[in-house]
Specification:
Blueprint: H1 7-32, E1 36-37, E2 40-41, E3 57-61, E4 67-72, E5 81-86, E6 89-94, E7 118-124, E8 136-140, E9 143-148
Antiparallel strand pairs: 1-2, 3-4, 4-9, 5-6, 6-7, 8-9
C-alpha cells in the first residue's frame, strides 16, 4: 500500500496559514516598537526578521557602574561605523563593505550571514544615569565595545520591591 501526499491539494491552506502568521508577527513587531512599515523590516525591503536584531549585542553594567555595549560587527571597516547619542538613546550606523566582484554569480551551499548597511539601530542609554559625553568606543577583531561611564553621585534606588503572595492567602 502506497501513501502519497499531494501538496498542491493543500496549497491554498498553507498559503493562508503563512499569510496569517506573517500578519501576527507584524502585529507583534509593531507592538514591540520595531519598524515594520511599507518598506519592510528595519526600513529596507526584504531585509528579513533576523536583521531587526542585527548586529548581535551584549549589554552589561560593570561593578563600577559603567554601561558596556558590545556589538558584533565582523567585516565592517572602523571608519564605516558611527556612534552618537540623542537624548536617552545611543545610535549606531554602519556601512557594509562593497560586495565581492563575483557575489552575483556565487552559488552558496549554505549562507548564514550577509553584510548589510545598518541605517539606524538604537540602544537605550539613560542620560541621567550615564555620562554619554565621556563614552569611549574601541573596535577590535570585529567587536565594537562602547563603554559609557556611570555618573558620579547617581544612586540607583533599587526601584520598588513588590511582594509576591500565594493566591488564596
Amino acid at each position: 500500500m502506497s501513501h502519497s501526499f499531494r501538496f498542491d491539494a493543500c496549497g491554498p491552506e498553507f498559503k493562508e496559514a503563512a499569510q496569517e502568521f506573517k500578519e501576527q508577527v507584524r502585529d507583534w513587531a509593531d507592538e514591540a516598537g520595531f519598524s515594520c512599515g511599507s518598506e519592510g523590516w528595519g526600513g529596507q525591503r526584504g531585509e528579513g526578521f533576523a536583521a531587526i536584531f542585527s548586529p548581535r549585542s551584549n549589554v552589561y553594567v560593570t561593578e563600577g557602574g559603567d554601561l558596556v555595549i558590545e556589538l558584533l560587527l565582523p567585516g565592517y571597516e572602523q571608519d564605516a561605523v558611527s556612534i552618537s547619542f540623542v537624548e536617552d538613546r545611543m545610535i549606531l550606523k554602519a556601512r557594509a563593505p562593497l560586495p565581492a566582484a563575483d557575489e552575483a554569480t556565487r552559488r552558496y551551499k549554505l549562507r548564514r550571514f550577509q553584510l548589510r548597511d545598518i541605517d539606524r539601530r538604537e540602544y537605550p542609554v539613560s542620560a541621567e544615569r550615564y555620562d554619554q559625553g565621556a563614552a569611549v568606543a574601541t573596535y577590535k577583531s570585529g567587536i565594537l565595545t562602547v563603554r559609557i561611564p556611570g555618573r558620579e553621585g547617581f544612586t540607583d534606588s533599587g526601584g520598588i520591591k513588590v511582594d509576591i503572595v500565594k493566591e488564596g492567602n
